[in-house]
Amino acid sequence: LAATFQTVAKRFTYGGDTGKDQRVYYINTKELGEILYGTATPIPFRVVVSEERGYKLSVNIRCNGSFTYRICDPLLFYTNVCSNVSNQYDASELAPRLKSELMNALQPALATLSANKVQYYEIPAHTLEISDALNEQLSNVWRKKRGIEVFSFNINSLSIPEEQQKKITEWEENAMTTDPTTAAARLVGGQIDAMKTAAGNTAGAMTGFMGMGMAAGANGMNAQSLFAMGQQPAAPQQQTSATNSWKCSCGAIATGKFCPECGSKKPEPKPAADSWTCSCGATVTGKFCPECGKPRPAAAEGWTCSCGAVNKGKFCSECGKPKPAGTPKYKCDKCGWEPADPAHPPKFCPECGDPFDDNDRS
Predict the structure, then answer these.
(1) What's the distance, Cα to Cα, between the start and end of the chain in Å?
(2) Strand 276-277 to strand 283-284: parallel, antiparallel, or no bridges (unpaired)?
(3) Which of 76, 97, 115, 172 is the most buried (most CB within 10 A)?
(4) pLDDT tens figures, 280-308
(5) pLDDT for residue 71
(6) What DSSP character marks residue 282?
(7) 243 pLDDT band (50/70/90 cuts)?
(8) Which domains does the chain have, with CATH numbers?
(9) Shortest CA distance to 134 belongs to which of 56, 40, 65?
(10) Closest to 131 in 3D by CA, of 156, 150, 111
(11) Torsions phi, psi of 104, nearest 5?
(12) How far is the C-alpha of 178 from the C-alpha of 174, rounded, in Å?
């Protein structure tokens, strides 16, 4: 009885209610909704017709479809979305906000497909990549703040303006004709059609063929020449690009001064073994500097002691230290002839015939 009165007294301090409040919320974590969307304004999309020729075009895409979502973090969803709701929070209350934010993220998501050289008509086949890109774009707003993620994304229809479609078709045909063999095949096909038309000329087949011949002569190009151009190998160009390429430490093959993957600078080439540095700073391999014209400095004769003195004998003339042991150098003691490689002389002197022995060591 005393405990009952104590509980009643505590409730008076909380306004007649219990001191603790316990609630149970049921949150659906399965796939939710099928929210319909449509692009109110066109979305720009970059189309690469030919990377080699630089044929790139921006088109305006319009699309519509549906997407679904799921609650991946119920506690975060309750805290930031529906914590102030007393009874029931329906998915329809959240749908307009999600639709608006998804449409804002759709443009950068499509830009990732454009960077991977996906054509606009291939976009419906890459809905999984779009879902991943949308989740990446919306991760800060949906997943980290609301505990929501895109579950599926569908495209029902996708279109671009007719004039842009014609432009892409024209550029694709132009890119095809840059190949001489393809151009020759199209020229032959056009000539066959012209021959059929000439044969049915109302003024006579001969008149039609004469007109066709005059047009071919004015054009100055025939299929045989184009086929011959197409059979010429392109090895010199490939060899040039291979010669100018270098391999970066990250493993990428680059042709410029900097690596396109990590930005590292192209390493400087190692100087040749017989190169020398001129006083102007240039690295030279010949007898004269190509920058300032100065001759290559003569190598000091003899050996240099640790004290800095240059000597020719077996002992230093300044400090008396003996000549350090090293690779012996030879010079003929009879006529004074010196071989090009003093460390590896021939067996006999080519000037006087004296054999090289220990007496010829310098």
Answers:
(1) 121
(2) antiparallel
(3) 76
(4) 878 877 778 878 888 877 655 566 777 77
(5) 92
(6) -
(7) low
(8) 23-44+64-157 (3.30.479), 311-362 (no CATH)
(9) 65
(10) 150
(11) -70, -30
(12) 7
